[in-house]
Write a structure and sequence with these properties.
This protein is of the alpha/beta class. Helices cover 19% and strands 31% of the residues. It is built from seven helices and 17 strands. A six-stranded antiparallel beta sheet has the order 8-7-12-5-6-9, covered by helices on one side. β10 and β11 form a beta hairpin.
């Protein structure tokens, strides 16, 4: 019987025109024979002849995909809308300047360790009051902005980064987002209904030597603050980051740069392990005079980024406005084409191997 064959194809070199393939299994058919007696009509037996009696196909060997992310023991949906966890607001402070286009607030809630989240997960919040139909408000999901230890380092808090939503509708009326305004107006001591935690898409890589490229616009910085606190501000017995963290943060004005002092402190302490690039669209331009969006800033490092993306140890995380992904695709299409690679297909392979992680809205 033919043996099953396992073939593994690794990522291509920079000049390869083929896409990376993943491990696959070839299971050949197993054919068995047996002898049967052929009877004449008169009851006599003529011969015993070998014939194909049955054909069975071996079940393909199950390949158990081992996640590259820190997903062991991750808790999801411990608290649901009908029975949320009730925490309290411990801190709520505006973190954008007075001249910034819109307000963003950083808030810390008590959990007493009852909401065991991981870096990269989200929680739901249910605003107080009822909607126009007299029913409780639906939950709104927010990316967690603190590490699993929390801002106070005792694993008993969870933090969010929330922009106050206020806009004018087609009728000229000012509309306020229910949950964002509820959260931004919270006073210390106020109760808040929390659900979750949820999500595994944005969990950190297991590899402490990985290259982690983080792309954020506005409050999309939240999960990356959680990453970076674990990587650079905390000490863990089972995790010490020795790789490269590279953060790109896009905002409209410099007064909108979130957690700027924290990130600059990290860069000062770990210059070999942390790179930091801001893209301030209303204040900065590139050499062509174009506004500096996050993809514009990335284009300045396009060749370097592409070389990193060809490595198994590189992970890209993207969080923020949905439009950012297309701008980044536009950069990568031409770079990949130089190596004879179709970027869209290549990105699919990166997603399958958990190296391209997106959470946009």
């Amino acid at each position: 019987m033919a043996a099953a064959v396992t073939a593994a194809v690794s990522l291509p070199s920079s000049k390869s025109s083929s896409l990376p393939s993943r491990t696959f299994i070839i299971s050949p058919e197993r054919i068995t024979f047996k002898k049967v007696a052929l009877q004449h009509r008169d009851g006599g037996v003529r011969v015993s002849a070998p014939i194909r009696a049955q054909v069975t196909t071996e079940a393909p060997a199950k390949v158990v995909k081992e996640s590259k992310k820190q997903d062991e023991g991750v808790v999801t949906n411990k608290y649901k809308p009908k029975e949320p966890y009730v925490g309290r607001c411990l801190l709520n402070t505006k973190i954008t300047g007075d001249d910034a286009p819109g307000e963003t607030w950083h808030m810390v809630f008590s959990t007493e360790g009852e909401v065991p989240y991981r870096e990269g997960q989200s929680i739901g919040v249910i605003a107080d009051g009822v909607d126009k139909n007299g029913k409780p408000h639906k939950l709104r999901l927010y990316s967690i902005a603190s590490s699993a230890l929390g801002d106070f380092g005792d694993s008993k808090t969870v933090s969010l980064c929330v922009k106050r939503l206020v806009y004018t509708n087609e009728q000229g009326e000012i509309v306020k987002g229910v949950c964002s305004n509820f959260l931004c107006d919270l006073k210390p001591g106020a109760e808040v209904k929390i659900t979750g935690p949820v999500g595994k898409e944005m969990l950190m890589p297991k590899d402490p030597n990985a290259t982690i490229i983080m792309l954020a616009t506005g409050t999309g910085i939240a999960p990356f603050r959680s990453f970076l606190w674990k990587m650079f501000f905390e000490k863990h017995e089972d995790y010490k980051f020795n790789g490269l963290g590279w953060l790109f943060l896009g905002v409209p004005t410099s007064s909108s740069l979130l957690y700027k002092e924290e990130f600059e402190k990290m860069k000062e302490k770990y210059p070999d392990n942390f790179r930091l690039d801001f893209a301030v669209s209303r204040e900065q331009t590139n050499e062509k005079g174009e506004k500096m969006y996050i993809q514009t800033r990335m284009a300045q490092y396009a060749e370097e980024l592409w070389e990193l993306l060809k490595k198994d140890s590189t992970y890209v995380y993207m969080c923020g406005l949905k439009g950012m992904e297309k701008g980044i695709d536009d950069i990568m299409v031409s770079l990949a084409a130089k190596d004879g690679i179709n970027w869209i297909d290549y990105k699919k392979q990166l997603k399958k191997s958990e190296q391209w992680n997106v959470e946009v809205y």
